[in-house]
Amino acid sequence: MKKFLRLYYNLYLIIFLNGFFLASTIYFFIESQYEAELFTSIAHKILSDSSSRSNPDSFFKHSMDIANYLVGRRGIVFDNKIGGIKAEFFHSSTVDLMTGEGACGSATVVLARILKANNYQVRIAQMKVGDTWGGHIVTEVKKNSGWVVLDPLFDFYFKKPDGQYANFKEVSANWDYYKSQVPHNYPPKYNYEDVRYTNWNKYGFIGENIYKSLKMILGNEKANSICIRSYLLRNYNLLFWVSLLLWMICSWHIAWLIVRK
């Protein structure tokens, strides 16, 4: 009898969890699709300009203009803050788009989502300012010739002598040349001293050991270029897959309990 009751209550609990994960999967799927369509619409609007369709640099520039405009104007309206569980706990890219509460962080996320909506590879670059990592954040996007750096908060980019967009390393190595291109309100302390793409210490012991393993396998340069944040930009999509996996596990467990019973 006790064995039967234990099995019954286990089945009851698993059925409850199964329903919870199924509902979560549906919710996260809807939110993910809405968010993806939102940024895709912005990208398509930019691509309606013929120069943006034919020239990647033009698309990058127009995308940066839009990100700067949207984050800046909406930040004023919402006073850079919006509350609630959805905004504070999940904090999707739409929150950055609506509030601009993260300043350079929000601007880079919005720009990155627009670029990714047009199938460009991006990464979030955490600039070292003095002794502080992440003192300023910029977006990098990859084109055929390599990575280029964009600063959506100040709506500008660096140009090499040949007119091509510059990457972070080029700017850092020749700051005396490139600093003449920054806007008049650009803080002098943002001097492109150094950059990192992932704060491995943030993930504690696990992150540190993953980083050490990656350096052994890929080498220092490739390991340091990995940007975890670029894979987490679509957090609703990530939550959808996690919920789906948990729902499938629960469904399998229910079937196993029924067969066992």
Please characterize this protein's 3D structure:
The protein is an alpha+beta fold. The protein has one domain (13-196, 227-260). 62% of the residues lie in helices and 11% in strands. It contains 12 helices and 5 strands. Helix 1 (2-47) crosses helix 3 (56-78), helix 1 packs antiparallel against helix 12 (235-260) and helix 3 crosses helix 6. It is globular, with a radius of gyration of 23 Å. The relative contact order is 0.13. The model has no long low-confidence stretch (mean pLDDT 87).
* Count of DSSP H/I helices: 12
Broad shape: globular
How many distinct beta strands?
Answer: 5
What is the residue-averaged pLDDT? 87
The overall number of domains is 1
Rg (C-alpha, Å): 23 Å
Helix/strand/pairing category: alpha+beta
- For the largest sheet, list the strands in their spatial order: 4-3-2-1-5
> What is the helical fraction, as a range of percent?
55-70%
Largest sheet: 5 strands, antiparallel
State the low-pLDDT regions, or none.
Answer: none
Helices and strands, in N-to-C order?
HHHHHHEEEEHHEHHHH
The N- to C-terminal Cα distance equals 13 Å
Strand content: 5-15%
